[in-house]
Amino acid sequence: MKDTRPAATCTACGFAWRSAAMAEGLRLLGSCPRCGGELEFGGDTAPPADEPAVADVDPSRVLGVPRRPGA
After folding, report:
1. What is the DSSP string of 42-64?
2. 38, 62, 67, 69: least CB-packed within 10 angstroms?
3. What percent helix, strand, coil does the chain show, rounded to 5?
4. Cα separation values, 24 from 16, 46, 69, Å
5. First and final CA of the chain: distance in angstroms?
6. How far apart are the C-alpha atoms of 22 and 13, rounded to whole Å?
7. DSSP 39
8. Nearest CA among 59, 58, 61, 30 for reference residue 10
9. How many C-beta atoms lie closer than 10 Å to residue 23's C-beta?
10. What angle do CA 13, 17, 19 make, to 5 degrees?
């Protein structure tokens, strides 16, 4: 049975990410990109063999499109 726990969850705002690549990027970032809160990692956060490593992916594909100042 597949693990359905999110790969990372923000303890402040409760937002959850399910991708192992996102979890790896969030580990490098160190805090929630939405609110700056603390992150909790769960499940298997190692990227699957068919998923490229974060270093091989454009940053906007991993963490999303950056917000514009004042938006």
Report:
1. -S--SPPTTSPPGGGS-HHHHH-
2. 69
3. 25, 10, 65
4. 14, 8, 25
5. 41
6. 17
7. E
8. 30
9. 23
10. 170
State how far the Cα of 52 lies from the Cα of 67, in Å rounded to an integer. Answer: 25
Q: Are 36 and 57 in contact (CB under 8 A)?
A: no
> Model-level pTM greater than 0.70?
no
Q: With 90 as the cut, is the pLDDT of residue 14 above it?
A: yes
- H/E segment holding residue 12: none
pLDDT, tens digit (0-9, with 9 covering 90-100), for 26-69: 998 999 999 999 999 986 555 455 655 556 777 667 776 667 78
Q: Which amino acid is located at 31 in the chain?
A: S
